[in-house]
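FORM 12-B: Structure-to-Sequence Request
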């Protein structure tokens, strides 16, 4: 049987990992072993980061809503409870956008929530 050499295949596979390590510092971008280890680690960090981003944005929206509601004399939690009682189903992302860009419309929503709380 003829001898099989995997030079081209191995080189192509290694080049793929080196390509993924583009922009890394030192030997992590050029040495296959270091690049492979760092790319695996980077992918793990990226996976975790995609989960954390959802949490971070939700907390940012909550902070923005709270900051917009405080001058109206409500806390975030009472405001959200008022929205629930008033049957207003707007998610936190949209509420924070309204608070930043359309403050008049947001104030109307706050008034409706206050009205529902007083009933």
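FORM 12-B RESPONSE
SEQUENCE OUT:
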């Amino acid at each position: 049987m003829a001898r099989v050499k995997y030079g081209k295949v191995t080189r192509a596979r290694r080049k793929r990992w080196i390509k993924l390590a583009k922009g890394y510092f030192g030997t992590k971008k050029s040495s296959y072993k270091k690049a492979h280890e760092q790319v695996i680690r980077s992918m793990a960090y990226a996976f975790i980061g995609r989960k954390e981003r959802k949490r971070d944005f939700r907390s940012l929206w909550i902070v923005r809503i709270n900051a917009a509601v405080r001058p109206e004399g409500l806390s975030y939690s009472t405001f959200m409870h008022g929205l629930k009682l008033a049957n207003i189903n707007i998610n936190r992302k949209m509420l924070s956008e309204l608070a930043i860009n359309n403050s008049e419309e947001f104030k109307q929503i706050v008034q409706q929530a206050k009205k529902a709380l007083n009933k």
